[in-house]
Amino acid sequence: MANDFCDVCGRDGYRNPAVTVDAVVLRQGPNGGEVLLIKRGPFPLEWEGKWAFPGGFVDYGENPEIAVIRELNEETGAVGENPVSLAILGEPGRDPRKHCIGLFYIVDVDPDYEPVAGDDAIDAAWVNIDSISSDDIAGDHIEIIELLDDMLNE
C-alpha cells in the first residue's frame, strides 16, 4: 500500500511518535549521590513545579546525542559531553502532550558546575537521589531515579 506525501512539506501520512532526550548527570555530593534536575514551568500543566531531567524534543535532522547535549545546555547552562545511552521509555501515555519515546543518556558534566535555569525550566539544581519521591518528579522520570538508586546501591 502506497503512502501519500505532502507536496509542500514532504511528510508522509504516518502518525509517528515524537522523540525526546533527557540528560542524566550524576555526581557525588556531601550527602551521597546527586543528580542534576530542572524544575518544570507551566507546560504541560500536569508537571508544573515538578523536578525532571533536563531534556526536550529532538529536532528534525538532529542526532539524539547532539540533542541531549543541546537540551542540557539550554535548560541548565551546563556543558555536557560523552553521552551514553542509559534507558528508553516509550509508554504511549507517558507524556500528556503526545506520544513520545524518551531516550535517556548519562552525560558527563563538571561536578563543580552550579546550574542556572534556562529555556522552559524555572529552577535547576543538584538534588540528592535519596530525597526524590514520585510526588516530586514529573511523569515517568521516577523510573530512571529508581534505576539509578539500584545502580548506586549494588
Can you summarize this structure?
By secondary structure, this protein is α+β, with helices and mostly antiparallel strands. The protein has helices at residues 64-76, 141-152; strands at 18-24, 26-29, 32-40, 51-52, 55-57, 81-89, 100-108, 121-128.
* Gyration radius, in Å: 16 Å
Low-confidence stretches: none
CATH architecture: Alpha-Beta Complex
CATH topology: Nucleoside Triphosphate Pyrophosphohydrolase
Task: Provide the number of structural domains.
Answer: 1
Distance between the amino and carboxyl termini: 51 Å
User: Major β-sheet, in short?
Assistant: 4 strands, mixed
**Structural class category:** alpha+beta
Helix content: 10-25%
Task: Quickly name the level 1 CATH class.
Answer: Alpha Beta
What integer is the average pLDDT?
A: 92
The number of helical elements comes to 2
Q: What name goes with the CATH superfamily?
A: Nucleoside Triphosphate Pyrophosphohydrolase
Name the helix and strand elements from N-terminus to C-terminus, one letter apiece: EEEEEHEEEH
What is the number of E strands? 8
Q: What coarse outline follows from CA principal-axis ratios?
A: globular
Please state roughly what percent of the residues sit in beta strands, choosing from under 5%, 5-15%, 15-25%, 25-35%, 35-45% or over 45%: 25-35%
Query: Strand order within the widest sheet?
Result: 5-1-7-6
